[in-house]
Amino acid sequence: MRKFLAKVFATYIYFKNRKWIYNPIEYQKKTFKKLINKASDTKFGIEHNFNKIKSYKDYKDKVPVRDYEQIKPYIDIIIAGEDNVLWPGKPVYLSKTSGTTSGAKYIPISNESMPTHIISARDAILRYIYYSGNTSFINGKQIFLQGSPVLQKKNNISTGRLSGIVAHYVPSYLQKNRLPSWETNCTEDWDKKVDLIVEETINQKMTLIGGIPPWVQMYFEKIIQKRGDKIGEVFKYFSLFIYGGVNFEPYKNVFKKLIGREIDTIELFPASEGFFAYQDKPNKEDLLLLLNNGIFYEFIEASKFYDSDRERLSLEEVEEGVIYVMIISSNAGLWSYNVGDTVKFTSILPFRILVTGRLKHFISAFGEHVIGIEVERAMKKVLKNSFIEIVEFSVAPQVSPPHGLPYHEWFIEFRTFPKDMEEFSKSLDLSIQDQNSYYRDLIEGKILRTLQITVIKKKGFQDYMKSIGKLGGQNKVPRLSNDRKLADNLIKFSI
Fold this sequence. Notes:
- The chain is of the alpha/beta class.
- The chain has a domain at 362-493: GMP Synthetase, Chain A, domain 3 (2-Layer Sandwich), CATH 3.30.300.
- It is built from 18 helices and 21 strands.
- The protein has helices spanning 2-21, 24-38, 43-47, 56-62, 68-79, 114-132, 162-166, 172-175, 182-185, 190-201, 213-227, 231-234, 249-259, 372-383, 421-435, 437-444, 460-467, 485-490; strands at 93-97, 105-109, 141-144, 152-154, 157-160, 178-179, 206-210, 240-244, 264-271, 274-278, 287-289, 295-301, 313-314, 323-330, 337-348, 351-358, 362-363, 370-371, 389-398, 407-416, 452-455.
């Protein structure tokens, strides 16, 4: 009965969502108007003359693009106890994320924005059911590897990791099938937590598993170590993997080997700032941009982001194939906020995107501006149809080597090593040259030499993340760095 009802509900949601999917500009204009009207009497709205904003042009004239450092003074006022600052009332939660110069970041979540995180995740699964017809996972056990749901208080505002906050909103009808136990989920030590999760799940009928790929991989490896069988044998009914946060491609071959068979996947694009997109069709790598979540989107060409005359574009002005920095205004009180992610549109109707990387995660020590999607595609190309498997990798420039020309240094943890490391390195370098013509010009012009590989020891990336207190949960190793801070620390975990 549950499977039948799931299919019926999936069909209902599919047709319901077509209204905004195929009327995107109309919905964006409604969202824009609603956000401005709602926040007109807030501190931010008064300071920026929201009551005089009649058009998107007016808005751009009055509200500049901000990153966290620039919006932090308003967050500090909220934490100090003032209400009606960025959004009417007080946030119901502050989502704590890893910061850069400011340390921890606190992103407000409102009564209006909180449900969108739950509904979007639900709709992604229902969309999958609609297209695939697969409902086999519904009656089995489900697990999402996530942060602790234990929340702290900041002046009576509950504060914690987004995944931990979301754990409080799991619908009651899913609770009986959901693992791990609340007690295990509250465990702060990630190593201990994964061990406990293994114990709780290893003999269960697991059908759906979700989480950030490197941490799910850690979970799978511990199960295999304990049982000796591949995941597909341990969990015979496991049929769906849900992930987000990082590109799955670099992990695909390893997961296939760990599981022992092909498995369906759904990619999500959630963040503390909002739930932006999900994979709406199986076997399509692009994601459906969500326009029913109380978010008004703006875009700035990534290549022009730091130019004084950069142009802010609404959704109706974007083009396919251009890499943009995504800017959002939301029903949690973020206004023209730079999320830090870069995206590329693959379709205009409906609006579908590929996440191409992070604005701050690039290498341009020599003007090459290599971005995340380029190194990931390069790696995917050399791994295709090979026996080589990698666990994790990160790239940084070496500007001042002791000898010879500068180069890009690739830190790679292998699961299965290449037979010929020199040939692998050469193929990888040619692959990144194919992705980035500026890099190729620097190689051909003898400004750079070809990439150099530093091999990271087994579990080296995990050990590194543990050493900086960021093991597990939503934490991710940056794919790219434009300086040596990460690289100099990773060298300590090399072979």
